[in-house]
Amino acid sequence: MLYVEVILPLPLEGVFTYSVPDIMAEKVKMGVRVLVPLGKSKTYTAMAVRTHSQKPDFQTRDILQVIDAEPVLLEKQLKLWQWIATYYMAPLGDVFKAALPAGLKAEENYKPRTVRCVTLAENLRTEPSMQLAMSILARALKQQQTFATYLHLSHWDETDGETPPQHIEEIACDELLNAAHASDAVLRQLINRRFLTVYQREVGRLNTTGEAHPENILPLSEAQQDAMNQIRTEFMRHNVVLFHGVTSSGKTEIYIHLIQRMLDEGKQVLYLLPEIALTVQMTERLKRVFGSRLGIYHSRYSDAERVEIWKKQLSDNPYDIILGARSAVFLPFTRLGMVIVDEEHETSFKQQDPAPRYHARSAAIMLARMYEGAHVLLGTATPSMESFYNASTGKYGYVKLTTRFRDVALPEIRVVDVKDLYRRKMMKGPFSMELLNAIRAALKAKKQVILFQNRRGFAPMVECRVCGWVPKCKNCDVSLTYHRSQNLLTCHYCGFTYAVPKQCPNCESTELTGRGYGTEKIEDRVRELFPGARIARMDLDTTRSTGAYSRIIGDFSSGRTDILIGTQMISKGLDFGNVAVVGILNADTMLNYPDFRAYEHAFMMLSQVSGRAGRRGDRGLVILQTKSADLPVIRQVVDNDFAGFAHDLLEERRMFHYPPYWRLVYVFLRHRDEHTVESAAIEMASRLRQSFADRVLGPDKPSVARVKTENIRKIVLKLENGIDLNLARQLMREAREGLLSDKHYAAMNVYFDVDPL
Ligand code: ADP
Ligand code: ZN
Ligand code: ZN
Q: Which fold has domain 2-104?
């Protein structure tokens, strides 16, 4: 009897064993999907990972069906899944769910697009039978013409007549009818008389057109060439190299050179970006050089497209380069040579919710390890503390590029202390005079402006003027944001919307006012202040529809908009040539964020946004408005002093036992009932303390302690470097199992966030 271990697409740990009926035994192997029963009446598409013939000591059930003839999952991919499940303490079933496009999880959903095609009938594929065919057809002129057109389109008439062509070409019926100016009836006669054979061919929805144009690769400057040589040298000694190049130093051009080298060696490249918005510009830059050798993969693509890319990567003719967001690490690669993690410091590389809470940078490093000689290049202008530390200890190679391309100066950053200006009533809404003057001057010089405000909506908070009542989400512990275009209050945590109350439910006053500025309100004010300017906004609300990203970015790139207002979406990696002024309206929300990473994030965000200014030609100007002008981190941003910033921060992290010196694991508990979650959290913390002693902090209420009607508690575990992680994970799991075995807490959701961000 044969048994197969499968992964189920459910939040379950480990694998499950089924028996294989004899008639299916031949077909079952690692990487094929099988249909399996579960419970009384459910069936699931599961992934086969191992077959064996040891009878388990429980009653197994038979698999129902083998779905694939060939594996859809490679051994290396499975290894990556297993690493993610182990390292991030996530159920293997959740990794399976995250990794596979939905269309591969349930075959029913996926309908390949087909096209009706014809080829030359088998028995006609010799010269004598062909001549016979032509003479028979001489009496049906239209059919003969159509048949001749087929021969022409399929290049048969170019053969020497002696040796039949190696490859009998298929021609789409539509194409043939078009070329022959024939009706479908004529074609049907040819098919019925067995001159042509018809069938449905599965076709890709993928764009596979576009020649590669290696000649479009730009020659590198001396500094770039130098950096590239250093990267290649570092790769001789390190699997991972951190490439620290200031904004607009031309990192992307260097990547393009490195990619071309990989392709010349017959290797594949995975190019990861943190944000879908960025793939728009990058796609254009890469397409120009690599044409149809480039494939793009991210969650904005339809599921059918993602299934096709997946299958193409398993075929004999895969894309050589995949450009994608986080989830692209899960694609099959057969000859991976390099992974580029661009903007490696970006926190969106880490999946927050749901499980698996994995970091794509770490996953990429693990992925590359499985391929002989494959390397990882981490690129950024502002390295993450983790990568910077790994580079400084020699674990990673390190290459620096300190000059911008064409030696354009880094922008001048002027700090405007708005605390003082507000007190002296010298602000015009959210704008200082200095910023308004700079915008005015830029517009006059036909230059462009970027305004950065990291809050979407109209007013981040609504308040009753009389009693101070603030509307809050009934599901979450957060105040609601007013969105004027929809005239609704929205919860940014659960997405729930509410009508705007006419009066305060507390004191019945009708004086409800919005407080603070979201991007929507900024847009409004800018329109009032600069009536002649063409203005666009890029945030989550304006980019919901497909194509919106490309439109907004395209309009700004080509100069059809003058002022672009946006959230962090506009801060990263975008390359616009004509931006003279960047305005950062309020740096304080970032600086005041209650998290040990607040300064790290603020430094990166501020440096990155600033980096959008003056990328070509004249020096750019950044106006940075803040109430905390005296903070050292502001000075470090202004001086572009990454080294000083990193030095201070790392010293602090070392002293207070934070990453990269110590490892963090957050334990979250969620439950509807507040008392239950509170007592469970206390119990869990005490169980953890039995093994981890004072490495356990908490439980505490996180800053948003209720989301989607669930109350949340958080326990922090700090583990010193060098600790036995396998054992630590084992002890954490045991503590959770111990807690959940108490029937009081059986319904408690307890999960781990390893290396949280
Ligand atoms: P980074 O990725 O470091 O921010 P980019 O690669 O976007 O920088 O380069 C900044 C700008 O300089 C881009 O517009 C790019 O096209 C241009 N550039 C960079 N290197 C070259 C080169 N070798 N030749 C011509 N233009 C270049
Ligand atoms: Zn009130
Ligand atoms: Zn909510």
A: GIY-YIG endonuclease (3.40.1440)
